[in-house]
Structures are given as C-alpha cells and as structure tokens.
Amino acid sequence: MEKTSNERLQELIDKSGLSQNEFANYIKVGIRTLEKYIGEDPIKINPSLTKKLSKAMPINLYWLLFGEGNMLTNSEFSFTKLKNSPRSIKPKPEAPEVVEEKPKKVPKPILGTGDLRIISRIIEERKRLKLTVEEWAYNLKIPVEDQIAHEKEQLKIGASYFESMYAALPVDIHYLLTGKRIFDDGFKFQHVSDVLADYQSLKNRLDKQQSLIDEFVDKLVKHGF
To answer: Given this structure, which CATH class describes domain 113-178?
Structure first.
C-alpha cells in the first residue's frame, strides 16, 4: 500500500535520527504543530510546512507530497550532521495559539509574504502555460471566483489546491513552493501542446515503472516474503 505524505514525513524524521522535539526545533516549528502532521488523525501537509522543510534541508517535495523520486535533492547531504546541529539541541517553545473573532468586512489581502510569493509564481506558471483564469480554474475543477480570489491575494491556498494542480497540469510544484526549479534547462516549453505531450510521456514512463514494481511485489508476496 502506498504511503501517505504524512507517513513519508514520519519516515523523514526517522531517517534524520532526531527526536520529534529536535526535528521540530531544527525546522523551526513548535512540537505541537509537528504532531498535527504525524498524529493519529493528521492534517494535510501544507505550503507552510513544506517551506520550513525546504529551508532546513534539501528535501524533494515531489517525494514528500507524491512519493516520486528520492527523499533528497542533494545526495551529498548527511543526516548524521543534524544530531549535533545547534538548531536541534533545545526544543523551541511554542506560544499558545490565540484565536480572535473578527467582524466580517470587505475582503482584504490576508496572506503572509511567503504566500504572496507562491501566488505570484502560480500566476507566472499560468501565464507560461498560456491559460486564462477561467481555463486554469476549469482544469483544477474549482470555481473561477476562487481562483480570482487567490490571485487577488484574498484567499489562502491549501494542500488540496496543490494536489488538484499537480494532477491536472504540468507545473513545477517544487518551484511554486520554493522558488527553485529542479528540472534541467531543457525542461522548457513554448506551447501548451508541447507541455502536455512531454508531461504525458513522463507520466507513461512513471506508470510503466510502477507497474513493474507492483508485479515484483506480488511475486514476493506469493513466495512468502
């Protein structure tokens, strides 16, 4: 059975050799925040956490979110160095969460600096693919009004938005979340038809590899492994 992104996060923590407190301190989040992602009823991994992870280590977000590729983008990175890192020695205390009731007013931008950068890159990707707001919303199966609100910085973007975008369009999720592209210089397109053709070719290769893996696993199960 394929692991969830939350289970892969736990795998990353185990691989690091750090305790949950040390890992939370290393990526600069509170322990209670981290526990929300790896507890019995975990919440979905969102851009806020992926941004923290990518700043702390060369994590491959395609692996974390979708189980594709290697855990890290830098094969020379060593987890053994994390144990003695000053960032992981003392857990960072988390301030109590304060929930404030606010009266309903005319929508205003409610996003932080990091969210605004992500939205800016999403708009950049939409224009690169030569899609209108309506076409983009149609592919993601969301209301056009929601996409307009996203682009006007009046509505936050959650994990489900990225899942829909990844499933529907050939966008560089790693770039959208971190501002860094992991594709080589040859991964550039001039027309949407070129994008879709290359994307479908890549998807077919990945599906074929997954089929071979499933077949191999079935054989192991039949032989009692």
So the answer is: mainly alpha
